[in-house]
Amino acid sequence: MARSSGDPLRSAFGDLRRAHPGSLAAPVPAEEFENLWAAMSQSPRSSPGTAYVHVPFCETHCLFCGFYKYHWRKRDGAPYVDSVLTQARRLQGQPLLDGPPLRALYLGGGTPTILSAPDLHRLVSELRGLLPLAPDCEITLEGRILAFTEDKMRAAFDAGVNRVSLGVQTFDEPIRRSLGRKASKQAVIATLETLVAFDSGAIVIDLIYGLPGQTFETWAEDLRLVEAIGLDGVDLYGLNLIPGTPLMTAIDKRKLDPVPRQDLGVFYASGAEAMEQAGWEAISTSHWRSPGLRERSVYNYLSKTGAECIALGAGAGGALGGVGYRLIPTVEAYAKQLDQGQLPITSMFRARQDAPLINVIRAGMERGRLDSTQVRAVPGGDAVMDDLEPLLAHWSRAGLLAPRQRFFDLTVAGRFWQVAMTQRIIGFLDHPQRRPMAALLREEGAK
Ligand code: SF4
Predict the structure, then answer these.
(1) Taking the C-alpha atoms of 316, 320, 325 and 326 in order, what is their torsion angle to the nearest 10 degrees?
(2) With CB atoms counted within 10 Å of each terminal CB, which end of the chain scores lower, N or C?
(3) Which ranges in 12-59 belong to alpha helices (H)?
(4) Matching fold, domains 28-304 and 355-446
(5) Strands 317-320 and 323-327, how do they pair?
(6) d(CA 272, CA 288)
(7) Which of 107, 111, 170, 182 to probe ligand 1 with, by most ligand atoms within 8 A of CB?
(8) Which of 25-39, 217-231, 246-260 has the highest mean pLDDT?
(9) Which string of b and e fits 2-29 if b means at least 16 CB within 10 Å?
(10) Is the pTM for the entire model greater than 0.90?
């Protein structure tokens, strides 16, 4: 249920629940990994797919981050790239590479831009030869400003990267310093301008609202710079306070004060308004693209729709034929398994039976528009939509949705609460009392 307070941005729900709702459920026992993987790799893919390469090294641990894994040492780069390429070579000739060509290749981390120019070049160019990429495949290099030098940019673009996604978080120098981000404001701007000047792909950044020390003025300046620099896309994320991160420790010790939780929605709304005023298009609830239309965000979109994904690299996660899998996160163990010709898989999960339905709902919510006709078109969708509609009507009354014909468009407040709402939809669908709850909501709506 949402609170009908008249101020949905601030108080529709009690918590944000930022963890993205998954659609994979039942863990597979380790003794079944080998046979299951054999079956998965012997089946051609049947739907649009992607590949994800994980590069788990970072030069520093940013205070807010829960993804930090390995401190970067220069000598680790080349052997790690060797291991990833070894894993990709092992896939050659396997039917899982057959089927529709891959629409997106994503190098994430960690910090893939930490790799040397020669390693970046051979990683991307060799993967292009080893994986069945579509001619218009989006090839994203994720990373950060620090140590992303011009020779690396050139190497990446020359090898075929056509999208660069950098975690900037904020341009404001005092806030950057307090978060452990070392690059100065001028260095951030200069790096982004250099990337834009290459004119070789979409340049996209992440910004975070809710950071300690952030004000509406620093936020407005961050948003102004996105347009002024000539970027192609921007993600606006609310600060996710992850237990165990250095930021959480600093907040617990009262060394840093985050933005009050009830103001986060106002930051989001002002960000959405600024992007709209600049003529940018919201292609998801957290992502905007410039009128230049270079940005497509194919990987992010496909991953939200539950597309099949081939995982490469220590700690990478993938999904094939309704089975999710994760590779061994430890670099040494991952390399050792590959050297011994063994499967570097650490966990597997079978998708829940109604995953196609959940994926349609997740993808629609993520894009800011739930299409009831699309949901009803999936097997089992009619019953789900019949029960869901009273909840969606309740949320409409609370100012989170704007129903229009077959669509439920998320309002600005709904967009801010999207992840929390999607999680609640999944919880509602799984609830043993779903039918009686739907009946109660229907009664509430009739009053
Ligand atoms: S934000 Fe990026 S660079 Fe910083 S610790 Fe996390 S993964 Fe590494």
Answers:
(1) -10
(2) C
(3) 33-41
(4) no
(5) antiparallel
(6) 9
(7) 111
(8) 217-231
(9) beeeeebbbbbbeebbeeebbbbeeebe
(10) yes
Report domain extents, the chain: 28-304, 355-446
Please choose, from the candidates 73, 71, 143, the residue with its C-alpha nearest in 3D space to the C-alpha of residue 106: 143
State the distance from the centre of ligand 1 to the C-alpha of 180, rounded, in angstroms: 10
Q: Which atom of ligand 1 is nearest to the CA of 68?
A: 5
**CATH classification code of 28-304:** 3.20.20.70
> pLDDT per residue over 65-109, tens digit each?
888 889 999 999 999 999 999 999 999 999 999 999 999 999 999
Angle at 100 between CA 98 and CA 104, to 5 degrees: 110
Measured over the CA atoms of residue 120, residue 121, residue 123 and residue 127, the dihedral's sign is positive
The backbone torsions φ and ψ at residue 408, rounded to the nearest 5 degrees and listed phi first, read -115, 100
Structure tokens at 410: 């998320």
Give 3-state DSSP helix, strand, coil % of the chain, rounded to 5. 45, 20, 35
CB under 6 Å to ligand 1: residues?
58, 61-62, 65, 67-68, 109-111, 144, 167
Residue 370 CA to ligand 1 center (angstroms) comes to 32
Q: How far is the CA of 306 from the centre of ligand 1 (A)?
A: 25
Burial classification of residue 442, based on how many CB atoms lie within 10 Å of its CB (0-12 exposed, 13-18 middle, 19 or more buried): middle
Fold of 355-446: Arc Repressor Mutant, subunit A (1.10.10)
